[in-house]
Write a structure and sequence with these properties.
mainly alpha
Length: 222
Amino acid sequence: MNLPFTVDQFMSVIEQYNQTVWPMPIILNLLGLVAVFLAVKKSALSNRLIAAILAFFWLWIGIAYHLAFFTAINPAAYAFAALNVIQGILFLIFGVFSQRLSFRFKSDVNAFIGALLILYAMVIYPLLGYLFGHVYPKAPTFGLPCPTTIFTFGLLLWTDIKLPKSLLIIPFLWSLIGFSAALTLGIFEDTGLLVAGIIGVVLIILRDKKAPKPDIGVGHTA
């Protein structure tokens, strides 16, 4: 894959982002943990809050990373920013406003694979990055596109009603784009991105053939 920037330029952008937005990487990790907690410990507001957190993540990536930093070395980042903002808006529409998303950790295969993806995004990903020589601040942190996409697929595997399939399109596209770029850039921890995209989409589609349809406007708290 031919890229319009070098590895050094890319890592410099990552470094500049991490240093400029500090301590947001920590805050984003905490928000991720909150989303996981809300899915395990259900409440009346869990579904809306989890969807709002996912919406914030994707809006953050589009505006605070792609638009503010990545456009400096890659013109395509304007399109990436737009796609990420659209994804954030979709989470707001389906999860916050119309309540068509329901998250719950259950003891089934999808839930355990989702948990593995969440663990990979938040814990294994940075550890592998360190082993591959990506030391902070020149390391992709949680809240940047690739680990956040993996995390998103993990949480979507925890949904227990039919998922609006438009929510899968942009994360899946990024799993392909990000993985291809990662191979060229030597960010091998992003291998999990392609795995998450393929497994996530396949398992959700298969599950939704049997999953109940959402009751629009009714929260699922039981």
